[in-house]
């Protein structure tokens, strides 16, 4: 199986440890994972703000970069949802039959990380070790657009040493929503404050989620409140083992490629996942 990592814009620019963790995890599970260097944005910022025509070349770049792979794995329910649902809308609007056909190939093969692990690889115990008190926030797109259900929790429950505690009002949105946080700042802050309060109520050391954009929003509030709660992507916990303690594999060139890839100025980063 040829698998490609779609690292996402926000991880490329701000959270490279998440991409490295995905590589370590998949390699440990015997997956031959590639990192196509031609990848850019999935196009979600343009689609979410109504610029569907401007999204056409971005979607075209996506399908070209990931053509020929058996699966595309991304550590983001938001970006996976864009590839699976929004790309077909953009392609149909373009009137280009070739783009429509290409999207029909790449869309169904794009998986959020927990989906790929549970549904494609058929594993829930990935050999992880993380001896900390953890609570999980299900992000909106993974929950509602993709329907990942309890896959992330099943993966976390199998982690050795972990204490997994329920998050009150877990299904409520954190309030980020890309440009929503800019256009409706007061509402966004209020929603984020509610989420941060619920996180503190759990007594967790670590808040985990499958999208770093949500963790950035909630984590910023927790940091300002001096709550003492770390935020970590699901991939980073699943990649941790008792032996490695989350350290990069020195003999894995793909880990270094993800880490050293130069960031791009992608424009309106408020929508990036």
From TrEMBL:
Q: Where is the composition biased (Basic and acidic residues)?
A: 258-273
This chain's source organism reads: Nocardioides baculatus
Where is the region Disordered? 240-273
What region holds the Cysteine-rich domain?
A: 3-80, 134-218
Protein name, as recorded: (Fe-S)-binding protein
Which InterPro entries does the annotation name?
Cys_rich_dom
Pfam families from the xrefs?
Answer: CCG (PF02754)
């Amino acid at each position: 199986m040829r698998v490609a990592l779609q690292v996402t814009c926000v991880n490329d620019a701000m959270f490279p440890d998440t991409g490295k963790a995905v590589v370590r995890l998949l390699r440990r599970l015997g997956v031959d994972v590639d990192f196509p260097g031609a990848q850019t944005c999935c196009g979600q910022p343009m689609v979410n703000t109504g610029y569907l025509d401007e999204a056409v070349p971005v979607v075209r770049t996506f399908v070209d970069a990931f053509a020929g792979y058996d699966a595309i794995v991304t550590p983001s329910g938001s970006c996976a949802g864009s590839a699976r649902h929004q790309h077909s809308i953009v392609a149909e609007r373009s009137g280009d039959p070739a783009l429509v056909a290409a999207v029909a190939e790449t869309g169904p093969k794009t998986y959020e990380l927990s989906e790929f692990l549970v549904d494609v690889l058929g594993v829930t115990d990935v050999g992880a070790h993380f001896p900390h008190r953890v609570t999980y926030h299900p992000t909106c797109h993974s929950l509602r657009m993709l329907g990942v259900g309890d896959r992330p929790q099943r993966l976390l429950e199998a982690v050795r040493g972990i204490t997994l505690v329920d998050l009150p009002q877990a299904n409520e949105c954190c309030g980020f929503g890309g440009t929503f946080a800019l256009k409706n700042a007061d509402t966004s802050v209020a929603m984020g404050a509610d989420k941060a309060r619920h996180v503190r109520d759990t007594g967790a050391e670590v808040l985990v989620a499958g999208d770093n954009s949500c963790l950035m929003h909630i984590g910023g509030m927790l940091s300002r409140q001096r709550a003492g709660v770390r935020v970590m992507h699901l991939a980073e916990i699943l990649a941790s083992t008792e032996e490695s303690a989350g350290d990069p594999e020195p003999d894995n060139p793909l880990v270094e490629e993800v880490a050293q890839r130069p960031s791009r100025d992608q424009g309106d980063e408020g929508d990036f996942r």
